[in-house]
Structure formats: C-alpha cells, structure tokens
UniProtKB/TrEMBL annotation:
Name this protein carries in UniProt: MOSC domain-containing protein
InterPro entries, per database record: MoCF_Sase_C, MOCOS_middle, Pyrv_Knase-like_insert_dom_sf
Domain MOSC: 106-277
SUPFAM superfamilies registered for this protein in UniProt: MOSC N-terminal domain-like, PK beta-barrel domain-like
Organism: Arsenicicoccus bolidensis
Top-rank lineage group of the source organism: Bacteria
One protein family per Pfam: MOSC_N
C-alpha cells in the first residue's frame, strides 16, 4: 500500500522547506507555499539556479502573525523577520515567462538579501493575490492558479523512484570511477513524498486520491541544475541530471516527480493512503 511519508511547504522560493505532519491544500498550493520571492529590478526572479546559497536559508511562516522568518542553516548571518506587507506598492515580475505580481516588503528586508547574496537591485515580494497567475493551460484547466512556484500547485515524488534513481547514479559513477553521489529527497523540493508501489509508477497516473483529496497529474516534472547541488555543502556534480538523461527523459525533459493540481481544497496528512485513479 502506498502512503504519504512526508509533507513540506516552502515559504520563500528557493529556500529550504518546512516539514509538517499535515498540510492544508488550497486551490493554488499548500497553504503558505511560495508566497515570498526575490525579484530583480527588471522583474526577473532570483532563484537558486543563479544564487545557490539560497538553498542554505531556512524560511518559516510564523503562525501567530504571519511573518516570514529567515535563518541561515549554519547561523552564518543574523536572522531576518519580515511582516506581511498589507499596503504599499505592487511589483511585477516574470516566472518562466508567466507574469507574476507581489506586494513589496520593507527596504530593510530587501537589503538583507542584497547583503547575503552580494547583489544589488533585489526586491522581496509577497504574493497577496494567489489567483493572479494562471497555471499553464496546456497542462491544466481554466481557473487553475498558482503562487510563485515554478509552474504548478504541488509536486509529488516517491521513495521507490528515488531508490531507482540512486541505482542509476551509482552505476554511472562506478562506471566512470567517480566518487559516490548520495541523493537526498530535498534536492527535488517535493510537497508530497510517498512510499510503496513500484519505482516511477507515478509517471503513469492520470489522477490520484490522497487521503480525502483528489488531484490531476498535470505533467511530469522536468528537472534543472538545482538538483545537482548537495543542499548542505552546495557541492555540485553532474548527477542526477546525467542519469536522468540516460534513463528517464520524457518529451525532451529530464524527469523526476509529477506536478499535481488539486481538484478542491482539503487537508493532507502523513500516513494518508495514496490511490491512483486511471481515466477521467
């Protein structure tokens, strides 16, 4: 039997996730997921693709007042606390070609990130309207929206699939005489991790029931350079992208995990049963 083993949300785009025993799912994401993001002066997003030290930050949503609290995993910088901006200017930006909009946080908060990343012209913004940005209609339905995620409300990965990918990586590195690369699931930044069933079987789902909720499988999740970083040391190798390219390329994408769109709202819990629903 396949069940949920881990749930997480990511308050700040590209920072570390917050593991939780249960998660409220809204139409656009797990509650509080990717509601904060960094934009450049020209509206382009800043992510760990070009600023990998974002992976060393741990961001949390403070429950009693909604503030964002950001800490460095090793305590290398003083923590940052940011109140939700309930007034002030909106700043527009772009995430993978899609227009996004957020309300700008305090200049002091943006300056904290400029100092940390060694960049200028950064702006921390909060997604005050999660209905603003539609999901790519090639893969979703009219009315589906998303916050500041790369494209979809949730991402599901499986432990058996990670095990199969590790086997591919081990074979590849052994064949080339390279040091072993130990994959951890946090490289892939999932919302939902499941265990049970066959490796990669999630890639064949049409819809899935998880606990009390149902989801559409929108598309296979194409992976990028972020997965090549060890999230603790920031050491970078060619894996797992090299092995995905050899064994799991679908429609020109290196695939691991599936993007989900909720068919309603509800609550997910660790331990929930996972049941594929084939067909419409």
């Amino acid at each position: 039997m396949t069940r949920v083993t881990d749930l997480a949300y990511y308050p700040l785009k590209s920072a570390g996730g917050v593991p939780v025993p249960e998660a409220v799912v809204e139409h656009w994401s797990i509650r509080h997921d990717r509601r904060w993001m960094l934009l450049q002066d020209d509206g382009r997003m800043i992510s760990a693709r070009e600023a990998p030290t974002l992976l060393l930050l741990r961001a949390e949503h403070r429950t009693h007042d909604g503030a964002l609290v950001v800490r460095h995993a090793a305590g290398a910088v003083d923590p940052l606390e940011v109140s939700v901006p309930d007034q002030g200017e909106h700043r527009e930006g772009v995430v993978w070609g899609a227009a996004v909009r957020g309300r700008e946080a305090s200049p002091e908060a943006s300056a904290w990130f400029e100092d940390y990343l060694g960049r200028t012209g950064l702006h921390l913004v909060w997604c005050d309207d999660p209905t603003f940005r539609p999901v790519d209609q090639r893969y979703a339905e009219p009315g589906d929206t998303v916050t500041f995620s790369d494209g979809f409300p949730l991402l599901l990965t499986s432990t058996p699939s990670l095990g199969r990918l590790q086997e591919w990586v081990d074979e590849s590195t052994d064949r080339r005489g390279e040091p072993r690369v130990e994959l951890t699931m946090d490289r892939f930044r999932p919302s939902v991790v499941v265990d049970g069933g066959e490796p990669l079987e999630e890639q064949g789902w049409d819809r899935v029931r998880i606990g009390e909720m149902t989801f559409r499988m929108a598309k296979h999740c194409g992976r990028c350079v972020m997965t090549t970083y060890d999230t603790t040391s920031l050491d970078r190798t060619k894996e797992p992208l090299r092995s995905l390219g050899e064994h799991n390329a679908i429609d020109g994408r290196l695939v691991f995990g599936v993007n989900l769109v909720p068919e309603g709202t509800g609550t997910l819990r660790v331990g929930d049963e996972v049941t594929p629903i084939q067909g419409s």
